[in-house]
Predict the structure.
Amino acid sequence: MSANELTIAAARDALRKGELTAVDLTMACLTAMDAGDGLNAFVHKTPEIALDQARAADARIKAGDAPSLCGIPLGIKDLFCTKGVPSQAASNILKGFRPEYESTVTTKLFAAGGVMLGKLNMDEFAMGSSNETSCYGNAVNPWRRGNEETKLTPGGSSGGSASAVAADLCLAATGTDTGGSIRQPAAFVGITGIKPTYGRVSRWGIVAFASSLDQAGPMTKSVRDAAILLEAMAGHDPKDSTSAEIPVPDFEAMLTGDIRGKKIGIPREYRMDGMPDEIEKLWADGQAMLKDAGAEIVDISLPHTKYALPAYYVIAPAEASSNLARYDGVRYGHRAKLAQGDGITEMYEKTRAEGFGKEVQRRVMIGTYVLSAGFYDAYYNRARKVRALIKRDFEQAFAAGIDAILTPATPSSAFGLGEMANADPVEMYLNDVFTVTVNLAGLPGVAVPIGLDRKGLPLGLQLIGRPWEEGDLLNHAYVLEKAAGFVAKPEKWW
Amino acid sequence: MSIDIDTARKVAKLARIRVEEADLPALAGELSGILTFMEQLNEVDVTGVEPMTSVTPMRLKRRADVVTDGNIQAQILANAPDAREGFFAVPKVVE
């Protein structure tokens, strides 16, 4: 086994025992990263930074100071601002932008000894479910349908993170999740991804998409790794006013594998018309696994589920249109070449038309429309009221004693790049149907790989937990992971 | 509710995104499709429901009104497409 294939937990133990050095581990990942160019997962490579950090990590480990992440090579989603390193949210409008500051999450990861290999591909401004809106071109899923050479999507928006972790280019990666952008790609490539409770991880220094929905989280090869990486990313940050002043527990220590007596809710509204029987079966298998572990399976109702997607596609674009107003060609990034006589309005309009891709333009305009005079109440306020009802559905389930909710993670396995090109935007939005409710309610949700479908592609299930109970949620995920025993890896073709 | 070409033009203007006249019909069609999808929200009885303002029930924190940062002009201008004499430069705004 090559060192880049290790989990964080295994690498940590080997580093502490002196069986492996951080420099050797980093070199193995840099080699894999360069050999993985066909996946288009890494879009800005930072080998010098990585090796400097690895050498520093080795010195720390030698001195007996070895936090869990010390010497662990990671990929960082392009949405995170990293000092002096291109950070452009996969958008042409931020071309050339090199932040003068470091995001809180990457600051914490580096303080814990983490090693940054480079920046990872994603959908532009995290708006997309297939990584096809990126200014860098598509990231590619390392999985294929049997022997077919069709390139598949790694999902989105954290598509590069998903692809890089599944292909062992790095040990783990950061992702962000506004409507499913960690969990859907994790499910599409057969890895673990958790979106924490809103407020658990600081948003400072992460390019904003929809501020009331955005949360960063880990994408990893195992549930244990998710616990380790989440603990390093989480914590109160005075620079993010929505960051919660709640202590971060030792999530890894909470992985006991004991869920006896826990109540698992199965929401009947998640049984969608036309759901593939493979997904239906996977879901039933997951229920059986948790039941075998001593949990009680309970039918529940989340009556407003159906309205989550339309509410999301009002609220997220509304917030995005406000957040993205800052890209005006003045302070950073791209500015359009102006014609003789062009004034400041032309500068704004041309800059934004050139810099934003089609999907981003569409969402900014939808957001502008739903916030405009005369429509604010009809769309935006109504959506916020429906959001309150969606949150209440979950609160009532938890108040009735439910500990975690089990659902499918995605309505299908990974689809081919380009296969949705002629679909209307709404069809693409349906990818988020099982995940988006969690963002609207601010809850933690985790995707766990369970099995392969008939085409040989990974499928995952989602567990949704109580607010601030990521430890308990990950313990449920751990049970599911052990029972499913998903160990399949994509066959290397890249 | 469907968006006509005039509305699409107006929305593009409000969003400060230049859209060519020839592209407006397609844009209007796409935006209409998305709005139709949103119209499902009208089925929900929201009588007496307060619009959700924050995800977690906490008061937005306030900080002391003091200067904690500053004297970083060069850093602030470092990424500007056009900076001159310590300022951001833009096309003429006032005649």
Chain A touches chain B through 71 residues (CB under 8 Å). The first helix of chain A runs from residue 8 to 17.
